[in-house]
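User: Hey, quick favor. My workstation is busy. Could you predict this chain's structure for me?
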Amino acid sequence: MSIGVVKVKQVVALAILLVGLCGKWVGAEVHHVVGGDRGWDPSTDVGSWSSGRTFRVGDKIWFTYSMVHGNIAELKTKEEYESCDVTNPIRMYTDGLDNILLEEEGIRYFVSSNSKSCKKGLKLHVEVMPQRTHDHDPDSQKVSTSEGSASTFADGPTPSGTANLGASYVFLVAGFWLSYLIFMGI
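Assistant: No problem, here it is.
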């Protein structure tokens, strides 16, 4: 075998390894856009949106909202959540587009800082489950929309529902790297 054929086989083997690793990374993080198409809004039934969704360590939740309806307060206790008591929040989110990494298991409570909106149901509790341990979990590559349907692959980031993000960037970097190796004759 010539040196060139051996190098090409090495590059192909590295590409296969990278694709395999990228698949694990992509499935590890799910982005949930709270409220789907409407976002965090008094007209959104956030409770219905969240039912049936699974939130896991490593996922992110995204809040998109108009500050006219108040900011988002993260609260410590179920009592504060149920009574819409925002006098002692853990944190206030005020940007209108906030993403929150779910770093550990447990329940987190989010409410509108506008008392009227909160009492009308603009609040969300998220039970964060452990990360998946199954390498070939059939749900790990599903994307669910705000309507509750599911498909196997995402076309890219969407403003609603849940999406796996990051694959395009990883594949782009891997493609540049492989092109460099091939161009340099390695």
